[in-house]
Amino acid sequence: MTLQQLRYAIGIAKVGSFNKAAEALFISQPSLTAAIHDLEEEIGIVIFNRSSRGVTLTPEGEEFIAQANQLYHHYETVLENYNKAEQKKKKFAVSTQHYSFAVKSFVDLVKRYNIDDYEFAIRETKTKEVIDDVAALKSEIGILYLSDFNRKYITYLLKEHDLEFHKLIDCHAYAYMWKDHPLAKKKSVNLEDLSQYPCLSFEQSESGSYYFAEEILSTNEYHKTIKANDRATMLNLMVGLNGYTLCSGIISEEINGSDYVAVPFKDAKGEDDRTMEIGYITKKNFMLSTICRFYIQEMEKYLQVYTSEHKK
Questions:
Q1: DSSP states of 42-70 as a string?
Q2: Exposed e or buried b for every residue in 203-220, given b needs 16+ CB within 10 A?
Q3: Partner of 198 at 20 to 30 A CA spacing, among 114, 153, 285, 298?
Q4: What are the helix and strand counts (H, E) for the chain?
Q5: Stretch (H or E) spanning 111
Q6: Cα–Cα distance for residue pair 106/102, rounded to 1 Å
Q7: How do residues 267-309 score in pLDDT, each as one tens digit?
Q8: Over the stretch 212-251, which tens digit does the pLDDT of each residue have?
Q9: Is residue 123 a contact partner of residue 95, using CB atoms and an 8 Å limit?
């Protein structure tokens, strides 16, 4: 088995076609077909189902490609660290739930590195896609949270995808709203206070959406709810409809602007025992790239500053 064969197999899995993969890899289709045939013969499994409509991965092929992605990424990381010769742009991607601190840290990362040398990507996306992206190494790192409610289900999915969770910070629930919202100047709010206003949440996948919700109090019943797909729409709904969303309270004004406030959420007894454990996920036993480690340091640094200021 060679690295070139791995690259070919990964390329075919990505586009779902031998023809398209051959074009992208600058190789003739017969040569590509022969290389994959030799690879399958050597490892003793069929990686791809072939049909007139293209190719799909067999169950054994899915497991093989997942490990091939990981191995090939290790190879590229070694090249990044030790190969001084001129080479193609290095890649770094993040998939995250909608956290402004993750975006702020990404901005600081890009400023630190030469953007001419890297192909950067950050994807604010659905919770399940954060997990899928890291599992497939579409992104090297993913940002999400655990709570008493979703922990068992999310942890099960992470284990199924050979991923591990690394804690960054614990935080309580806040109601995030426009600065001119009728409740914006209150010291704290509860569900009764919020009941007459629309509760905004990020839309999730249909399957398991109950557990994928980014909002910590997703188990509560809300009289008025509106779902959105992106941060900009969410902020517009806060202004236009006096909507609110429930969040960690860790807000970057540099990213979201200064027109919004986070008001502590308390229950009817004035307690705030809802805890979000925010962290990042990576492939288990995976050698992170230098740039990924720097990104983690930027997040930790930002959250440390937030924590010290929040305690004042």
A1: HHTS--EEEETTEEEE-HHHHHHHHHHHH
A2: ebeeeebebbbbbbbbee
A3: 153
A4: 12, 12
A5: helix 100-112
A6: 6
A7: 766 555 578 899 999 998 888 888 999 999 999 999 998 888 7
A8: 888 776 555 566 889 888 888 999 999 999 999 988 888 8
A9: yes
